[in-house]
Design brief:
This protein has 132 residues and is mainly alpha-helical. Helices cover 35% and strands 3% of the residues.
Length: 132
């Protein structure tokens, strides 16, 4: 089967992805890994668009149960253990395949200091930036 490439304006692309009207697409998460609730938003079978970002309609009942459990767990260590199980399932099932990882690069003058780029790629590091 041949792959047809269709350049789309952003609104059309996001609409198609949200409806599940795609075979393959590329987007990137920006700053999404700052909170473990991202796993629920992206992988819970109840969170297909428009209720969430489970755009590939991934479904795993065991993962759903763990996601529900971690959301209400008050003990930090127990929640951490649940999230570790969740990460392992997602890594094993591989519902999404990353074709590449973007290198986060910040180019700045010597007069700008205190720059630490976070792994999530978001821009909140600019709050700590300072001028000499």
């Amino acid at each position: 089967m041949a792959l047809e490439l269709r350049p789309l304006e952003t609104a059309t692309l996001l609409s198609d992805v949200g409806r599940g009207s795609f075979q393959l697409y590329t987007l990137r998460w920006l700053g999404a890994n700052n909170d473990p609730d991202i796993f629920d938003y992206v992988f819970n079978s109840k969170r297909t668009p428009p209720e969430g970002a489970n755009r590939g309609h991934y479904h795993n009942p065991a993962l759903d149960a763990l996601l529900d459990q971690q959301r209400v767990e008050m003990d930090r260590d127990k929640r951490k253990a649940l999230l570790s199980q969740i990460q392992k399932i997602v890594a094993d099932d591989e519902p999404y395949i990353n074709l590449w990882y973007v290198d986060n690069v910040c180019v700045h003058r010597d007069t700008v200091t205190n720059i630490t780029i976070p792994p999530g790629g978001d821009y909140n590091f600019l709050e700590e930036a300072q001028l000499k």
